[in-house]
Amino acid sequence: MMIHIFAFAGMDLEVYTLLKQMIFYLQNAGVDLLKVMHLVLRSSNDTTPSTLVADELIKIFIANKLFDHAIDVVNHVKKIGLEPSIYSCNYLLKCLAVANQGENLARLFEAMNNFGPYLM
Question: Organism's domain of life (predicted)?
């Protein structure tokens, strides 16, 4: 998948832009974003999925006020053996606090205590 090629090449802006456009299109088409997100996180050739892709998905979901989707990315990434960056998790915590999403904030903080995202 092109997204993973860009991610492995360190092309952060390209990954963000491609994912943002993809999510915008799929959301307008009425597609279940969570199902698509799980597929996007998997690499097309079953190599190690990219943490960068997960971090960019988290940022995009936050920007679109889809906090439940962003939290699901954090949880799914852990299930597939990756760690989201501390920066993405902290940004999500901050945005949840600003949006008065106390319950989600507490659940995410507890999850972070359990898996401790790496400082990248």
Answer: Eukaryota
Instruction: Give whole-number Cα distances, 47 to 1, 5, 18, 40, 41, in Å.
Output: 11, 11, 20, 13, 11
Per-residue pLDDT tens over the stretch 54-107: 899 999 999 999 999 999 998 888 888 888 888 988 999 999 999 999 899 998
Decide if 73 contacts 54 (C-beta within 8 A). Answer: yes
- State both tokens at 101: 């999403």
Question: Where along the chain do its domains lie?
Answer: 2-115
Residue 74's alpha-carbon distances to 28, 29, 51, in angstroms, are: 24, 24, 10
Write the DSSP assignment of 14-38 as a string of letters: HHHHHHHHHHHHHHHTT--HHHHHH
Residue 69 and residue 100: Cα distance in Å, rounded?
A: 16
Residue from 102, 33, 41, 38 nearest 64 by CA: 33
Helix (H, G, I), strand (E, B) or coil at 118: coil
